[in-house]
Amino acid sequence: MSNTFCVTITHCKTDPDKATLGFVVANAAQGSEKDTMVFLSSDGVWCAVPEEIAKVDEGAPFAPLKDLIEKFVKAGGKIYVCTPCMKKRGIGEDNLVEGATPAGGAALVEWLSAGSPAVAY
Question: Which domain holds residue 33?
């Protein structure tokens, strides 16, 4: 059984519910002692921008996205943000939330090729 887990998130502004659910699952995986990585791509890269994160609160029973992300990072979770997707949207590295790292698709491929299960939102 793999000790890693991957959550890919391709939504934020377009579907805040999927962004929230993605980080709920990522927190569950991290809490289950899985080395967990979230890969943000497409519209999902907005999940790494503090001003956009602050706008997402799907309401009970879910915590606000900001709180979910902070919890995930504090627990040691890794957030990788698609560099070309950032560039397309004019997002600079200095605009990212603490704990988020710009990365290309190779980082995702490497993570998955080691046998990590993955889920997408």
Answer: 4-120
